[in-house]
Amino acid sequence: MSATPQKQIPPRSGAAFKLKAGQELTVIDPLGGQVADLLAISAADIREMLSSGRTLDYAERIYLTTGNKLYSNRSNVMLEITEDTVGRHDFLLTPCSEATFRLCYDNEPPHQGCHGNLFHALKPYGIEEDAIPVAFNCFMNVPVDGATGTFKVLPPLSKAGDHITFRAHMDLIIGLTACSAPASNGGTFKPIDYVVR
Ligand SMILES: [Zn+2]
Fold first, then answer.
1. CA-based diameter of the chain, in Å?
2. Strand pairing of 162-168 and 77-84?
3. Cα(179) to centroid of ligand 1, in Å?
4. Cβ distance 179 to 37 under 8 Å?
5. Which helix (H) or strand (E) holds 72?
6. Least packed by Cβ within 10 Å: which of 15, 22, 103, 130?
7. Residue 1 Cα to ligand 1 middle (Å)
8. Ligand 1 center to residue 44 CA distance, Å?
9. Segment 178-188, tens digit of pLDDT
């Protein structure tokens, strides 16, 4: 399959683009240890979006990898994970936001975070800020204690060049970030690469 040129999202920023049904999106961690928040919205109706709750319900697991499907709020398959070199991603936590920095990081200057970056990238497609749901957090490492339900945000397990590939099951608008939260990447903000085939 022919591929578009590989693109780079600079540290602490975001991008939005179209992905047609049947196309594949590969999200690459070029330096290792960096999280990318991924959002998918139906190109036919922007009220249909990725749903963490429905996806985890149908998968019966919280760690998703190759073979798992990501569902919309209308229970349609939006994306399927077709390749995954890491095996640890998060679909529990919301995109980091200005409030995340206020509430979770005492010494960190506020930043609009992935939430703000997704909103600004998706605004031209008519997406409203309050509509942004939980994103699929590529490479985000959130181990959960099965007995108590407590969790920690730890540095990603991804090494330089690790990647995850998704196949689109419908025409989509994609939002993608290079995460802005220090806890998600061990305190060093790095870029995220992606390619569409
Ligand atoms: Zn983030």
1. 47
2. antiparallel
3. 4
4. yes
5. none
6. 130
7. 31
8. 27
9. 998 887 777 88
